[in-house]
Amino acid sequence: MRAVRIEVQGGPEVLVPADVADPEAGEGEILVEVGAAGVNYIDTYMRSGLYPTTLPAVPGLEGAGRVLAVGPGVSDVAVDDRVAFCDGPGTYAQRAVIPVARVVPVPDALATELAAAALLQGMTAHYLVHDTHPVAPGDAVLVHAGAGGMGLLLCRMASALGATVIATTSTEAKGELAREAGAHHVLPYEGFADRVRELTDGRGVAVVYDGVGATTFDGSLASLRVRGVLALYGAASGPVPPVDPQRLNSGGSLFLTRPSLGWHVMTTEALRERAAAVFAMVADGSLPIRVGARYALDDAAQAHRDLEGRATTGKLLLIP
After folding, report:
1. Residues 260, 212, 5, 36: is their CA dihedral positive or negative?
2. Where does the chain hold its CATH 3.90.180.10 domain(s)?
3. pLDDT tens for residues 195-216?
4. Which of 137, 191, 207, 242 is deepest in the core (most CB within 10 A)?
């Protein structure tokens, strides 16, 4: 089968397409024909070495496709079922072996590509607005990278819950996408904290959803209201340097959290419950998914270049 391999960690150039042996499903596992694989920032962290990774490896965590075979001990999934998954591993490939406990069923009403595009970012946005800071009507929230795959979902979910959504984007064209997704105000990154204060009559926002990291962190803290929450869920611009906790005190008894999806879907039951909630919104049209670009498997390196270069909007998919 065709797959993308990493022999050493580094830039996008280390993503090398290759012909490899087909994997086989073991105890409690299933073999899936990958119809689409999601491209996410966490993939770039693993590729670059920011996150430890055992090498050599086939990257990718998210995907959806058809079950080709089931291993011993598997009874709740059958051959030809459609499933999706977001903690793979090895989804940058034509076939992947996934623990059955970490797959979710794809509803008949949902296309395979949409399932792959919605799962990881959809569930991440879901826990951020329902658990990290439960968004309430009247809240003002700040969403960074409002035209990215995560940003668009956060704008939609937060506005649907009654929040006033302020988004940052790097271009006016991206700003229009954020507005279409429910953002009430769109700001450039330069000086955004001062503009947030102006838009909130000096109070600041209840929560900042920040997946950018190093370049936005200080402004994000400065944008918060008293006892506001900074949810730092990613680091697209690089990791944040060590922080003196006294800054949280002087900023108004602020809260800083670094959440991640894995801790919110630790059990199969929790995973499938949250996935079902996201898939239901996608299927009924209340949570549109924008697929910004599709790439052939052999073009995975270009997908990473585009993602890290902030040249994309919406979700990126590899089509094996």
Report:
1. positive
2. 2-119+265-319
3. 999 999 999 999 999 999 999 9
4. 207
